[in-house]
Specification:
mainly alpha
Length: 82
C-alpha cells in the first residue's frame, strides 16, 4: 500500500492513478479483515516504508522523504476516486 501511495503522491504518472487507488482500496479492505490489536502493535511502518521507498526509487526518478510521510491512520483513510 505504501508503494502505491508514494507513486500517487510523488510521481507525475497520470495513467495509472485510478489503478493505484483501486489497489490501495483492496489493501485497506484486506487489512480491515485481518488486523488485530496484536498485529497492529507488531507493524513497523518505517521498515515497510524503507522497502517501499527502495522499490519506487528503482522505477521513478523522484525525491522521497527520509522518514515515512504516512501514519497507519493516514494509510487507512479511503482515497477519493478522482
Amino acid at each position: 500500500m505504501i508503494i502505491h501511495r508514494l507513486k500517487l503522491d510523488y510521481t507525475n504518472e497520470i495513467q495509472s492513478r485510478r489503478h493505484w487507488i483501486d489497489e490501495i482500496d483492496d489493501f485497506q479492505d484486506e487489512i480491515e479483515r485481518r488486523l488485530t490489536n496484536n498485529l497492529l502493535n507488531k507493524t513497523n511502518i518505517e521498515a515497510e516504508y524503507e522497502r517501499a521507498k527502495r522499490k519506487v526509487l528503482k522505477m521513478y526518478d523522484v525525491s522521497l522523504p527520509d522518514i515515512c510521510p504516512y501514519t497507519f491512520e493516514d494509510l487507512m483513510k479511503r482515497l477519493p476516486e478522482n
